[in-house]
Each structure stands twice: as C-alpha cells, then as structure tokens.
Amino acid sequence: MSDERNASYPVDGPHAEPAVRDALAATWSDPPGFIGMLCAVNHKTIARRFMVTTFVFFLLAGLFALAMRTQLARPDQRVIGPNLYNELFTMHGTTMMFLFAVPVMQAVAVYLVPLMIGARSIAFARMNAYAYWVFLFGGLLLFASLAVNTAPNAGWFSYVPLAGPDYSPNKGADIWAQMITFTELSGLLEAVVLITTIFKLRAPGMSLNRMPLFVWATLVTQFMVIFAMPSIMLCSTALILDRLVGTHFYNPVKGGDVLLWQHLFWFFGHPEVYLIFIPPLGFISSIIPTFARRPVFGYPAMVLSLIATAFLSFGLWVHHMFATNIPELGKSFFTAASLMIAIPSAIQIFCWIGTLWTGKLNLRVPLLFVLAFFFILVMGGMTGIMVASVPLDLQVHDTYFVIAHLHYVLLGGAVFPLFGAFFYWFPKFAGRMLDERLGKWQFWLFFIAFNVTFFPMHLLGLEGMPRRVWTYPHGLGWDGMNLTATIGAYAIALSVLLFIVNVVKSLRSDERAAADPWGAGTLEWSVPSPPPPHNFDAIPVVHGRDPLWEPPARPAFVAGLAADAREVLVTSVLDAQPDHRPMFPTPSIWPLASAVATTILFIGSIYTPWAIVWASLPVAVAMIGWFWPNRGENRLAVARERRP
Amino acid sequence: MNADTRAPRTRPDDGDAHDLVLDVRALPSFAFGHRSVMWWSTMGLMLIEGTVFAIAVMMVFYLRTRAPTWPMAADPPRLLWGTLNTVVLLVSLWPNQLAKNAAERGDRAKAALWLAVCLVASVAFLIIRGFEFAALNVSWYANAYGSVVWLLLGLHTTHLITDTVDTAVLALLLFTGPFEGKRLVDVSENAIYWYFVVLSWLPIYGVIYWVSRY
Prior knowledge:
The structure holds two protein chains of two kinds.
Chain A: H1 2-5, H2 18-28, H3 33-39, H4 43-72, H5 82-117, H6 125-147, H7 172-200, H8 213-244, H9 258-292, H10 299-313, H11 328-340, H12 342-358, H13 365-387, H14 390-396, H15 400-430, H16 436-462, H17 479-508, E1 557-559, E2 570-571, E3 578-580, H18 590-607, H19 611-614, H20 616-627, H21 631-640
Antiparallel strand pairs in A: 2-3
Helix pairs in contact in A: 4-5, 4-6, 4-17, 5-6, 5-7, 5-9, 6-7, 6-18, 7-8, 7-18, 8-9, 8-10, 9-10, 9-12, 9-15, 10-12, 13-15, 13-16, 15-16, 16-17, 18-20
Chain B: E1 21-23, H1 37-66, H2 79-105, H3 108-134, H4 144-176, H5 182-210
Helix pairs in contact in B: 1-4, 1-5, 2-3, 2-5, 3-4, 4-5
C-alpha cells in the first residue's frame, strides 16, 4: 500500500483538496479556441451540440408542416405547387423521423447516462464525436438538396417503384438514400457507445437491478438500434445500387420485387417507432418518482416490460403492409402481434398510476407533460388497435386517419415527454431553471393546439381525405376541419416559440440552479448544475436504486483514480465490481477529419460509383491517423501501466 | 501540480487513508476479454454486421421464392475458387489463435509474428476473392439473382479488406511502437473479429455456392 501512497501523481477521493478538483477539471476539459471546439470529445459538449442540432431540424421540419397546413387551409389553394408539396411532406417526415426523433433520444442519453451511472465519461468519446459529425453532415446534405432544388419527393418511406430509377430520375432519391446511410451509421455507432458505457462504466455497486429506469430504457433501445438499423442501411443501399449501377433488386422485369423494399423498410420502420417511444418511457419513469416523491412502483415489472416491448416490436412490421398481396394468414399473425404489444405498455402505465396514486404529487411542468402523455398516447393507442385490424386498415389506409394516428402516437409518446424531460433536466444541461409560468402557458397551448390540429384529421380520414394530396376541391365536406387543423398548427408553432423564448430568457438570466432543485433520487442530481467537466469529484459507491434517497452507507466513494490523466474505473457487467482502470483518449481533430472523409465518400458515391474506391483512401488515412498513438500519451500510459 | 514537493502528511488525498473509501489504486490498467470495453465494442460491431449478413441472406431466399428458377438465367458459380478460399480462411484461424494466445501471455514479439502470418493469409484470400467474382457466372446487372449474389459477396469482401487493413496497421504498430500493454488487448480483439469474418463466411459460402445448386 505504501508505494501507492507515494505515487508521484495526484489522485482523486472524497477528501481531496480543491487543487485535485481543479486538476480533474483541467484534465477532462475540452481544449479552448476554435480548433479546440472542433477537437472536443467531452460527452456533455457533444451531447449539447447533438441536442441543439436535432432541435434545429425539428424546428425546420415544423416549418415545413406549417407550409403544408397553409396550403391545405382552404380548398383549391395555389400557395404551393404539387411538386414543392411533395418535397415538403417528404422533407417533413424524413427530417422528423431520421434527423430528430431517433437521434434526439440518443443525444439526451449521451448527456445523461454517464451522469446517472456515476461515470466521468462515455466509452469511446472520440467515436461519439465522430458519430455526431457524421450525423450533422448527413442532415446538412438533405437540406442542401432542398436549397438546390433536388430534394427527395417520394415520401419519407421512399417506396419503390416511385423512388426507383424509372419514376424518380433526378438525384433526390439518391440523396435520401445516402442521408439514411449517414444517420444510421451515426445511430449504430452511438448504440455501441451507449451499450458499452452502460455495461462497463457504472459506479461500483450499481448492479443491473439498481440501474435507473432511464438507463434501462436506453440500453434496450440501443440493442433495438443494432438489430433494426442494418435493415434500412441494406435496403437503401440496394435502392441506390438499382439507381446507379443497374442492379435489379426492386425491378420485377428482371426478377426483383417491389415488396422486398416494404419488408426491409418496415422491418426497420416499425421498431423505429419504439426507438422513438422507449427512451421517453425512461424519461417518464424518471420524472414520475421525483414528482410523486416516492420510488417507482414495480421496478422489475417495468424493466421486463421494456424488454418485452422491444422483442414484440420486431414482430409487427407487416401491419404496415395490410393493403398489399401478402397471405391472409400472415395478416392475422401480425394483427395478433400488434395487439399483444399493448400488454407491456399497459403494465408500465399501471405501474406509473400506482406510483402517482400512492405518492404526494408536486404538479410542476415536467409532470404536466407526462400527464398529457397518458391522455394523448392512450388516444393514439386506441386508433392503433383500430388500424391493426385488417378490415379497418384497408378502409383507412393512406388517409388522414393514419396521419392522425401516427401523430398522436409520436407526439404523445415522444414529443410531450421530451419537453417534460427538457424542463426536468434543463438545470443539468444549462445550469439554470426554465421559467415555470411560461412553461405552463406553453404546456396548455401545446396540449390544446395539438388536439385541435390532429383530432379533426381522424374525421377527415374517415370522410375519405387521402394523405399526401396537395389540394382538394370545395364541396367534399372537408373545408371546415382542414381550416381548424391549420389554426391548430399555427397555435402549436406559437407554443414552440414560447419554449424558445423560455430557453433564451433562462440562458440570459444570472440565477443559477441548485444541484438538486427537484429533490430527485438519482446520481446526476448529486453533482452541481451544470456538472464540471469530470462530472464527479469522487466516483460514488452505490447502495440502492435511488442513491440520494437511501440512508448513507460505507464505503461512500471511490478514491485513487489519477487526477492528471483521463483514468476511468471499469466495473463488471452484472454487479459493477471494480475491475480495472484504463486511460481514455484525449481530445483530437481526427474524428472530425474522419467524418469529413466519410462525407466525401458518401456524397461522392451519389455521383459516381468509383468514389467508393478512391474516396475510401482518405477515410483509411484519417482512421489510421486516429488510431496511431501519440508519443506523449504513450509515455504517460507506459509509466502508469499496471499489468493484469 | 507537483505532489512531490509536498510532505507526505499533507498530500491532497491524505484524508482517504481510512477504510471509508473504496481504493482502486491497485487495479490493473487493462484487461482481456469481456472485462475490457474494447471487447464490447467488437461484439457490438459483430452484432451489427451479423445482422447485415443475416438480412442479406434473407433477401436471397425472398427473391428465390419469387423466381421460377434459381439461379435466374445463369449457371451456378464455379466451385473451385470459393471452396479453395473457404479452406484458406479456415486454415488462417490457426495463426490467428496463436496471435491471440501470444497477446494474452503478454508476448509482444510472438503476437507480432503471428499477426504477420495472418496478414499473408489475408492477402492470399483477397487475391482468390478476385477469382471468385470472375467465377460467379453472372453479372450484377443481369438480373436480381446476379444483383443479390454480388451484394452478398461484396459485403463479405468489404469485411476482408477492412480486416486486412486493421491487421496490417496493428502488426506494424507492434513491430515499430510506440507500444503499450493495451495493444495486446487490441490483438486479442482483432483475433475475435477475425473469427467473425471467417465463420460468417461459411453460411454465405453455402448460400452463394450451394443454394444455387439445389
């Protein structure tokens, strides 16, 4: 023991002097200056950028929706022409699904998971930065295509043959397919980063059955990403091959099959709904115990429901294809599976009700958003049961009924809890609280406007209004409901504007948030708001599910990690026993350089297949540069090395 | 900060000398197998790529159920080069396992040597792979059968190329340095990924060369 006591470097611990804390903060900070920004790898820096980027995409996609609603406000309008309208609904759906809803959940997880599990960093911090840059460039590609008037216009699921070489001769469908490659590459890498973080970097004592439910939800979601996203990467690659080098995957004349697209797309596309929906279940399971002021009811049932939902979500994809010529037996099977997934969702809802019922409610804005989730999601779930049955689905397929259903599910299931989560964790993100009064205004305006916009769409669908029409004639009985929906859409925009005002106001105020303003029980609330670069001055030792609500126990903290190097504690998968303490990588420009090289490869391949050959060279160079160790870091690592 | 200038009594972490903290200073700085974070990322990539292969194989069988004959308007691929490559790939598992063993023993020189042997094997199967493409008896633009066979072989070839580059860079690093202990973990993970590339070839070999015969 004595030789370690005399180690020549500072180590951390609960009783360390302020100098050690400063050393830790300096070690884990991103470098200053513009170049330093481009080299940043701290998970909080990357996650903040990621969240802001996805939110900007959300706003832009919302503006597209507003443009469409303006066009549909009155019959026979000519504000927007048919081709631009096609581009708008394609861009709206594509952006909301691929550039907002799925990545924003990963972005929030990248910020919160290390704080919730008591870690100083995410695993593979550089890969995390690379995934962000790749995502950003993929999103910019899509918007650049709109700016130069070659935006995709075959809808967000880009069905063949419409998106194939015969019916979409311009570059739009290729750009759509490569945007998929960018975003899914980013999503898959984030999945690996998050799974490894959750399995290996938990604080000692945080066994799997003590993990916060948000961490469980994230873990389950990332496994779903791994099994779902390869399908769409493969199907969009096959599309681009059909279009660029004359393969025939989707060409029936040469033995291909157009339904192959639908199978591959929805094998991803249905789990995607749950990629969007399961992380919010984790938000809700974090918010409800805090505002009911008691631990969550039925923790094991909650965890098993998350896992069951994930499994079942892979058995539903054909219910998007009831209007095709698949066998009747298949349709019956997928109807049954679609109904079955209501069971684990119901179990979770009952557990939340149990928690709320037996708790002492603190009715703040985050909880309001969660309560709205119950109402709206249950509505969406009811119409979901309706469209899961074949005869009804055939009746309302491709009508506004489906539009209403999917917006109830996605906004109720994801956007409402997400706003609740922003209010709840904003002190951790920005060090300040959001204004409660403005928040209530935003909430009620959003809640009412949402129903004003989307409820009439159920009726429009039942009255036969098809989706994706750029205008409609007067006299079909659709005029009033369309006008109502448009008014509602503008009110939603106003409520989102209130949120932006609230954020800007809060960021400009001097009032700082306390470490634990809500009296919550999980580890992220044990550190200051916002957390220092190294998250924890001393890594906590965990003795229960809600560490801040548990009576104190010994040992309370870890000591002995280097303060002058990025040393982290790796623990065992199941029980989180301390195992070893590797050194993590420092900030670097290579992730950005590799992402730029990857972007050249992906965009080049839209224009010439040979780009796959010549542009892979810079990718290889950048990635080898990334891997090759730097001499200074190597010297430090060798000096500190301790063999197993 | 320079801790050496302080008297031992006033070291900043002096307060932690009692048993109320969990002291982790004695822990090793790297570990092999599922203990290391690298193992989990390798597993993650294998799951992703395994899913890609599985879905590509499903595409073959889906298109086959739609087709009146399989292969469509083409002879099945010639067996020679594909079978030869399968043998070479399986044989390469031997130096691969030796590299893994050497790394886990901490023997840098032997690990570098066996990695170099693996590299020779991977150059060999990349050359044979070229002949395999020529022996497919169909082009990717002839029909959907040709498209999907080229896709499957192309996907696996991408893995061969990336694994060759990985192995080359790692072998070079072991020979030239800068070296540190955790590079041995990289060798061990590289070996696991090699197993994946070889073993995933077996079902693909069966689908390309034998499913088109029955």
